[in-house]
Specification:
By secondary structure, this protein is of the alpha/beta class. The protein is built from five helices and eleven strands, in the order αβββαβαβαβαβββββ. Strand 4, helix 3 and strand 5 form a beta-alpha-beta unit. Helix 1 packs antiparallel against helix 4 and helix 4 packs parallel to helix 5. It is globular, with a radius of gyration of 22 Å.
């Protein structure tokens, strides 16, 4: 009985958060329409599971005995277990890293970044600032890990977002909301939209092109603490609970006149509450699968370099 009540409460809470997200994007739609823009809201439609659907799973007979097809779903990104025609699994010596289970009120991070963070997880309601090289890729890797299996993610201030790379990293496109506009001139209701998204979405990503005032940043982080939302921002105007800096990026995979880029090594350091001293790790961002991974202990690939050119005297 208790389990059924908990499931019902979780379902109601999820529906309430989704409704708040819809209202926030509705306000963004009205503003974007004035500038000739449009927001695709198809991802905000709930897709019932086979147990919740009145028609049952695909191929089940309807009330008139006719076959009823299950609702259409967005195709998962390549490499996911349920993707048709997926790529073969990686070899045993290059396993896919899986984040360990987290305690209530904690959000997972990519396993390669766990040594940088106290307890190896992020607290729901906290804020994370990301700076330096590859900051956008690092932001998205953190967001994909924190989304988990059921959380929504809203991305603002990244007009040139590479959705293909986001899907390769494992993001579910049916739980993504992209907010147009980078300042109040483009979107007059931007402060209200961001506040509503923090209220209704589990993970909010603020890109480097979004110009926030210190007052608005403090408002967003305060609301995030109340709503248990995670705010990930590139170079915010004020302090955050955790600060990650990426530096020393090096691409590898090229040989002496041959080969292809197979990944990028980046050093990531952390500072913030509960962190004594300086913590730093080297990660692959991205690796050959497009995700964030731990740097292998030994790898034969050579670093990309510029070879000297010999010129013949005339």
């Amino acid at each position: 009985m208790g389990t059924a009540v908990q499931l019902e409460e979780k379902r109601e809470e999820k529906a309430d958060r989704l409704a708040r997200a819809r209202r926030a994007l509705g306000a963004a739609e009205l503003s974007a329409a004035r500038w000739g823009g449009r927001i695709d809201r198809t991802a905000l439609r709930e897709s019932p599971t086979a147990s919740e659907s009145p028609t049952g799973p695909e191929g089940a007979a309807g009330p008139e005995g006719a076959a009823v097809r299950a609702p259409m779903r967005l195709l998962p990104p390549p490499g996911r277990p349920d993707a048709p025609g997926r790529a073969p699994a990686p070899p045993a010596d290059d396993p896919v890293e899986v984040a360990p289970a987290q305690a209530p009120g904690r959000l997972p991070v990519p396993p390669a970044l766990a040594p940088l963070i106290p307890s190896g997880t992020l607290r729901a309601g906290s804020s994370v600032a990301v700076t330096g090289e590859a900051s956008s890729s690092l932001l998205l890797a953190l967001a994909v890990a924190a989304m988990g299996e059921d959380s929504w993610c809203a991305v603002a201030g990244m007009p040139d977002l590479g959705l293909r790379g986001l899907l390769d990293a494992g993001a579910d496109p049916s739980r993504l909301a992209i907010v147009p506009g980078t300042d109040v001139e483009d979107l007059p209701q931007l402060p209200q939209v961001l506040s509503a998204l923090v209220d209704g979405v589990g993970v909010v990503v603020i890109g480097p092109d979004l110009r926030l005032t210190p007052a608005l940043w403090r408002t967003l982080t305060g609301r995030a603490r109340t709503r248990d939302a995670l705010v990930l921002a590139a170079s915010p105007p004020d302090r955050a609970d955790l600060r990650l800096e990426a530096h020393g990026a090096r691409w590898h995979g090229l040989g002496a006149g041959s080969g292809r880029l197979r990944g990028r090594r980046v050093r990531v350091s952390s500072a913030g509450r509960g962190i004594a001293g300086r913590r730093e790790v080297e990660v692959l961002l991205p690796d050959v699968r497009g995700a964030l991974a731990t740097t292998p202990a030994a790898r034969g690939a050579r670093e990309a370099s510029v070879l000297p050119t010999l010129r013949r005297a005339v």
